[in-house]
Amino acid sequence: MKKILTTLAFSGLAFTSCTSDDSVNPDNIKENQVEVPAQYSFERNGESTVAYTGQTQRLQMVKELFSSFQDFDNATQNSLSNMFSNENDPFTRAELNETSKSIKSKVAASRLYFSTNTVASNEIKADFEDFISIQANEVFPNENELASPGKAGQIAAGSSERYIDGKGLEADQAFAKGLIGALVADQILNNYLSVAVLDEGDNLLNNDEGNVEEGKNYTTMEHKWDEAYGYLYGDASIPSEDPNTVLNESDDILLFKYFGSVNNDSDFEGVAEETFEAFKIGRAAIVAGDYDLRDEQVEIIRENISTVIAVRAIYYLQAGKNQLADGQDGVAFHSLSEGYGFIYSLMFTHNPETGAPYISAEKVENYLEQLMAENGFWDVTPETLDAISEDIAAAFDFNVEQAAQ
Fold first, then answer.
1. Per-residue pLDDT tens digits for 350-390
2. Backbone angles phi, psi at 210, to 5 degrees
3. What ranges do the domains of the chain cover?
């Protein structure tokens, strides 16, 4: 992971950005004082310019939909699908029903990866509808049946039960962890932080001149950056200005939750702070009109978020392997289901050196086919789990042992 200055933790820091030729020449140095606040707090004329209501709403939608995957008495395929697309007033909160926003509309919908690939976008959306169908039509009817190879039902997992399809997959876990990539990472890395979105149309000129959107207190570029921020930090349980104070305590169920888990690993300690600092510096750079500095932060964010997804994919594959060896099938299937979702999310990562995912969609599909071969998790071998783990790690700057801790 790229490192950023640890001294950026205090308020009002003046960050000097300089670009030059081969030698330091005062004539070709661009000096731009960028004030980086201690918290993610930016104002114009004494009022906040930060807004990401739409992202918070979508995170709330995901949370309610995920919970409904376990509502055996009331949920149906139609009710779950309605939550996914926000149709027919499916939510318990009126403000979610009243908004035109939905989860589905932003799945596999980034400018960089899907604006010219609607076929792939629709196929990915259909995958999430399939997870809903599996839960409603295979798992729900077999709630009180014992699962076995080829048969959906319940399986003991320690002192509780897990509900799986005939191949051992928990559809709710695949759905939620898959959204970490298909919704959250894709929108952050490949949409809102892309030059195509940040610099679209007259955004550069309007930002330089301080022209705000009609009826708003922010420029379009500021708002696009904040929307990216909101997908990671927008859960209502996360303090808007200083999210890392609740790094392991928030109610978030998507990406932010796993930043805490990875940050707790000594091999990746600091990833949460680095990412938060990069979001602050990039936003401050936008205010100052330093777009080179802004884009440097985008690279840090892309690398770190991609790394978190890869680390958790390997972590759950290795946990599942060890749990299978201990005869804890139900616990292992839960881990492998989470791993399945994180593997799915790998196709939405963004390698700043190549401008493409660290792991291609074709490779992701191959990994998932290996996991689901024959009777799926009932038959998966340690060799398969190790081979996939090694292949993922090879695309990143860490090894399987580091990620598996």
1. 999 999 999 999 999 999 999 999 999 999 999 999 999 99
2. 70, 25
3. 51-405
End-to-end CA distance of the chain: 18
Residue 89's pLDDT is 98
The encoded tokens of residue 153 equal 């039902």
Q: Which of 389, 393, 345, 350 is nearest to 371 (CA)?
A: 389
How many residues are given for the chain? Answer: 405
Give Cβ neighbours of residue 234 (< 8 Å, ≥ 6 apart).
Answer: 52, 55, 56, 59
Amino acid present at 351: N
Residue 6: the pLDDT is 29
Output the six-digit token pair for 376.
């799926």
Query: Between residues 312 and 33, which one has the greater pLDDT?
Result: 312
Q: How many CA atoms lie within 13 A of 215 on its CB side?
A: 0
Distance between CA 289 and CA 219 in Å, rounded? Answer: 12
Q: For the whole model, what pTM was predicted? A: 0.92
Q: State both tokens at 96.
A: 């979610």
Tokens linked to 390: 């090694």
Dihedral sign from CA coordinates of 296, 299, 304, 305: positive
